[in-house]
Amino acid sequence: MSKINLSLTFHAVMLACGLHATTSYAQMTTTFVSATRGDNANPCTFVAPCRSFQAAHDNTFPDGQITVLDPGTYGAVTITKSISIVNDGVGEASIPVSGGCHLDHR
Hints:
alpha/beta
């Protein structure tokens, strides 16, 4: 009887750990954002980019880089570490700034 209980407990713990691992992502040196195919539930990789600068910021190591894949508005971002936001000529990417202004990188 105790073997069955131990086995069920082990499987329950493994299932819980597995579910947790699928919803949290490790930070990366370079993350990506896309206005057309991004989703903040994504891990912010090139093939599965984030939708907002804030989601990418939160998944990027200090001194890392957020790369813009296509033009769009990526929302407000609170920058709490040294980080670069790079737009290599793919069009306009904007960040709203308090006071109704926005920053453009063209």
